[in-house]
Design brief:
This protein has 206 residues and is an all-alpha fold. The protein is built from ten helices and two strands, in the order H-H-H-H-H-H-H-H-E-E-H-H. It is elongated.
Length: 206
């Protein structure tokens, strides 16, 4: 799961680089399209790489909801793409394609390994904010043998999400949590962010 996360991060970095190259060519596709590498965005990028610069032709490649933004899209595509931009974009897009193939293959292998743990995953998926990938990561870090944790407090401390215990003169003072399992903490932090944007459930109310 950690390796998969690294690959996803690398893919995100490459997408950000694509956007920066487009910006140097004064192409502001990301200001209109929420996903520059969605079907519409990818078609436009491939057209730009093929030497098409007419904004009407490029904007006409938009699909679905993006077609409602054609005026803004034409304006965003009004740039100057030179050969150096095309070389960089082709290189970056090829890298993204390779990463996506590796991620897809790795995910398939992970899914096979998770088959014996479907019941455990189903329990985790009942928690608001926890998706399948987060559930698999939690299971990978904690394991499925909960007997090694005497209590929920021990698990919280091991994960690094329990409040620190610092006292002076009989008074409890504010203290930072211990570092715990940094990978698990990162997954839980993402889940908390999702929960914070939901409503009408116990966790979001906290």
């Amino acid at each position: 799961m950690r390796y998969r996360k690294t690959l996803v991060q690398q893919r995100t970095q490459q997408i950000n680089r694509v956007q920066k190259v487009l910006e140097t060519a004064n192409i502001k596709l990301s200001s209109v399209a929420s996903d520059v590498l969605g079907k519409s965005g990818r078609d436009m990028l491939e057209a730009l790489l093929a030497g098409i610069s007419d904004v009407e032709s490029l904007a006409d490649l938009a699909r679905g909801r993006l077609r409602a933004k054609l005026p803004a899209l034409r304006e965003a595509l009004e740039g100057r793409v030179e050969d150096t931009h095309r070389i960089l974009l082709r290189h970056l897009l090829d890298q993204i394609d390779t990463l996506e193939e590796v991620i897809e293959k790795l995910q398939s292998e992970i899914d096979q390994l998770l088959l014996p743990y479907e019941a455990r995953l189903a329990l985790l998926l009942q928690i608001p904010g926890i998706g399948r990938i987060a559930a698999a990561a939690i299971l990978a870090e904690i394991g499925d043998d909960m007997t090694r944790f005497p209590s929920a407090k021990h698990l919280s401390s091991w994960a690094g999400v329990a409040p620190g215990n610092r006292q002076s003169g009989g008074k409890r003072l504010k203290a930072a949590s211990n570092k715990g399992n940094t990978h698990l903490r990162a997954v839980l932090a993402e889940a908390v962010w999702v929960i914070s944007h939901t409503k009408d459930n116990y966790l979001s109310a906290q």
